Amino acid sequence: MVNTNVRVSLPAVCFVWQVAMIILFGVFVRYDKEADAHWSETKKEENITSNVENDFYYRYPSFQDVHVMIFVGFGFLMTFLKRYSFGGVGFNFLIAAFGLQWALLMQGWFHSLDPVTGYIYIGIENLINADFCVAGCLIAFGALLGKVSPVQLMVMTLFGVTLYAVEEYIILNLLHAIDAGGSMVIHIFGAYYGLTISWVLYRPNLHQSKRLHGSVYHSDVFAMIGTLFLWMYWPSFNSAICYHGDGQHRAAINTYLSLAASVLTTFAISSLSAKRGKLDMVHIQNATLAGGVAMGTAAEFMIQPYGALIVGFCCGIVSTFGYLVLTPFMEKCLKIQDTCGIHNLHAMPGVLGGVVGAITAATASNAVYSPEGLINTFDFQGNFATRSVTTQGAYQAAAMCVALIFGIGGGALVGLILRFPIWGDAEDDNCFDDEVYWELPEDEESIPPILEYNNHMVTKNPDM
Amino acid sequence: MVNTNVRVSLPAVCFVWQVAMIILFGVFVRYDKEADAHWSETKKEENITSNVENDFYYRYPSFQDVHVMIFVGFGFLMTFLKRYSFGGVGFNFLIAAFGLQWALLMQGWFHSLDPVTGYIYIGIENLINADFCVAGCLIAFGALLGKVSPVQLMVMTLFGVTLYAVEEYIILNLLHAIDAGGSMVIHIFGAYYGLTISWVLYRPNLHQSKRLHGSVYHSDVFAMIGTLFLWMYWPSFNSAICYHGDGQHRAAINTYLSLAASVLTTFAISSLSAKRGKLDMVHIQNATLAGGVAMGTAAEFMIQPYGALIVGFCCGIVSTFGYLVLTPFMEKCLKIQDTCGIHNLHAMPGVLGGVVGAITAATASNAVYSPEGLINTFDFQGNFATRSVTTQGAYQAAAMCVALIFGIGGGALVGLILRFPIWGDAEDDNCFDDEVYWELPEDEESIPPILEYNNHMVTKNPDM
Amino acid sequence: MVNTNVRVSLPAVCFVWQVAMIILFGVFVRYDKEADAHWSETKKEENITSNVENDFYYRYPSFQDVHVMIFVGFGFLMTFLKRYSFGGVGFNFLIAAFGLQWALLMQGWFHSLDPVTGYIYIGIENLINADFCVAGCLIAFGALLGKVSPVQLMVMTLFGVTLYAVEEYIILNLLHAIDAGGSMVIHIFGAYYGLTISWVLYRPNLHQSKRLHGSVYHSDVFAMIGTLFLWMYWPSFNSAICYHGDGQHRAAINTYLSLAASVLTTFAISSLSAKRGKLDMVHIQNATLAGGVAMGTAAEFMIQPYGALIVGFCCGIVSTFGYLVLTPFMEKCLKIQDTCGIHNLHAMPGVLGGVVGAITAATASNAVYSPEGLINTFDFQGNFATRSVTTQGAYQAAAMCVALIFGIGGGALVGLILRFPIWGDAEDDNCFDDEVYWELPEDEESIPPILEYNNHMVTKNPDM
To answer: Could you tell me the pTM of the whole model?
Structure first.
């Protein structure tokens, strides 16, 4: 009999890690100059004439949209299971709230550490990047949904954020690849990290939980809340950390178009694949988002509106086929149980996005971008001032491999750690069930007043 | 026996139209100068000192709010039926994603086509206008909800967007009427377009689907998500394309106030009309929004805060009475079946908004607006530099007629097209049923674990 | 037999008060200079070079986030009861829509009245402050949820807004305390106002409604929508009216961190307190927000990131313990029935926030803030130019007492008024029931098509 009691382990992990965060923030983290009360002095020193030049006003609306995607988007997308809605939205909440703190530190050490003072200075862009980092772990959570304990999720997040920060440093700083919306850094890494963990934690008798491995009518509607907030705000996600001006503007347009196209091809394939052309909610909830994933790398490139539509067109098809063909195949033959189908929504579109990014980078030209625009878009400055666009394309391709290696390697390592029988995960016949980790309310059927008020219902106008 | 199989027609329509979009975008659509990588050159040429002057920063937050209204607002408002929530939110998603692409082209040809290069240049304002255009079709969808097939909806959207773009060009460019929030262009057109189609597609035996023509408790709560996101973000809708500065500021204030007032009168009439003063969710979900519709035309006018309150006051009353009296009358006597009651929420408040706009335009003065403010608000420049405010009022009234004619005429035409027995729509006894076009999950009652975990429930503290 | 018929009283209150609002707005309220059509003249007079300097662009995104918190956040948080979701989200909608109008007037008279013209000039900051004022009343509503009639709620809001405006004037203007996110002005006042009313309206036989005093599975998921939108947008709430630049920036960062920390300690205590470590949705829905409440006063202070984490850490613990220990104790021993547990979510974290604010104010220094930063943050100008930080700390503490006194005193007064047997509130055995004030749809179980489509279900692929 497996012990799913987390009464000691979960509070212990939460407390110890939160205390560690407080200590580490005390030692390392301060406000950056745009958030510090010395800002009025900074303005004078740097000849900034208006408060509106504070990065807060450029990025805060995008930050809030990204924040909604992380907590409501990912959270509600994972409420689709009939009896795991609490776990879907609740554990998403827990690991995101922890992950963003750890991400501020890890990313800070790699990107924002001042060598003189030894402090990490944080501002609005750090908050966005922390949310991005958390997204990688929430993608991985999608593969594990319903099969692991909250303590395992916390461990998965601790290591996931750590690996992400290293991988991100290699890709963005050492390889100097561009990945504004994170097709590679976030989606490829997150998806293969989660899939590998799921492979290591393979549950041979998961079919014993089959009764709970599906949706009910209203849980599918709840999941659509997640889908739509992800879909609507994805232009903010891909443009949030682009450079000011045309970069953010173009990234939003490209993502908007790509997403629209993937909706149509998702509906098409979903209908084509079913008897009588009936649509499947699983496809609509997930594959419609693939266009956003795949525009991550090339978001701010001059891919042109029709280029964005083509990307979305292909992704909707690939992703829906994944749900139809690959997910059953992977479960049966590769022993990878992928609850939310993150391979279809994140891994494949992420790879497609990385490829699109590499090609469009390699074919960039002064004519299309203008000389200054090319420098801005690809950040050809400092050590990279002389890099050619073809070289850039090659480094983009190399970045994909780095994300893949970190995802699979990290996932294998963390999967092994999570196999220890100490984490309180449920047995194979008890997965996808909120009853294991949540106090559940009594059931709807047992409400007495339903009968009572039905007696009153005769007073209601029957024509309304 | 009617054939509701859309396995060929729906994928065919989605694929062919999406491919057509890609080709047309390839031929016609490029980024505008604020989204193009040449922006750094543009800044120098036009002496723009800061990236914050990029229109993206003026309009992106409003755009995102409008985007939420289109997909979550309209989508969830249409989940109120007990077994058509998938269709409500899902088909809304499909036709909006298609419609916005077609709208970018149609509106682009009329408004943003560069005669020299032959290109349509798109930026953030085009995305907002595309979302606006789609709103017109989604309003029409409200009248047809549950009675048409997704293929019919795609056809309805194709023609709807086309008609909208022409009507909008006549109203905004030829008549030079002001309609920032679209009381006329969006709401009058969309509502009469949908109502006329519904009239042409009259189903004499719709009462056979009566068992499904109503809500259940939780579907009404889902619909409130739609209501509230529409309500909260309507100030952004009406101010999204107003001119920078006081125009956007004033439009947001006016809409905020008008909406607040219509909530109170909606509650009042709803309570007044029912036995024991009980409130009706249909009214609360819909009539509370009428104040936003009616402030569409006059949003940026100097109508003063109390003027906005009066508009909202009247609309809440008119709209709720519509649900109580007009919808049953229209169904019985005029043979117009209006599922969501769009006549009450969009048509009547839209007409009221058009009238308010005409009157307030005709009575505008230099004293109230300041000379420069008058020119800004009514765009009295170029060919229209010498137009008087009374003339403007007359053109505003003429614009209402144009919207009405396009709605009714277009609706009659499209209704006839949709009557062909080739579109896969359901029979009269099978309307409002997701089962026709969606793979439905097994039902909630049949979840075995409910019994199982109830046994565990004895462990729960009964006092919580 | 109590009469719960509100058919006369509710419409009468709505109509009369809305008409009063129109008249008072007509006499008193106009657009401020940034929303008035004379803005182009104002720009010239004040040498403003860009429209982006209009306060609208600094504050509108924050305003919209706050607006979502008021209507969706508070509204859906109160849908957790199994049969009071209509009342939770619907009455929240009604009283917020009324309250914000009355707040614009009341706050306007105290803060924005021009002594020369006799007009209140409103702009975007007034809308934010009106939403803030409404938040105080919605907090109070949380204690009364399910036990009062909509007419009582309207009366509660009328007085609540009035008291709030006076209290706010004393705290912000006379005492010159800082309270950007309203730990004191909003949360302490609102919570004790509601708790005192609930105490006066004590229902000795409320246990007779016990069958409805709990959640069902899906109502808990609905409530999570409210929780998450409150949680995500709280950084906007606390930063919305901070001064431009680093003030808003810092307030957002502090609140973001404080909220993240309270999530972890809430999960920890919730798990620690239950058999087998099972989490309780009541805690997750509420106590996770305590970090936002407690950062209200010190939001823009230089509390440093680790300081914000410590505040959130403590609040999550205190608030969850409140739900475990204090709420049952208060109901049993103090005869205070607090439906939503606002004492745990608003009162205690509010007090903690006030204390943190007083201490951090008293220990502020030129070194940490820079001289100009100190003046900006604490607004040491005009009559207050010579105030020391220690004096400021004392005034912060005094402000807490003012909020407390207004809450308790006002609540006692209003509670007595609401005890008159004329308001249509339900009997003790009929609380928490939407049936009293709402036309309810027929119940889910009685949908015939469920049986029907289950017959079709055999066509569905059973592996999906």
So the answer is: 0.95
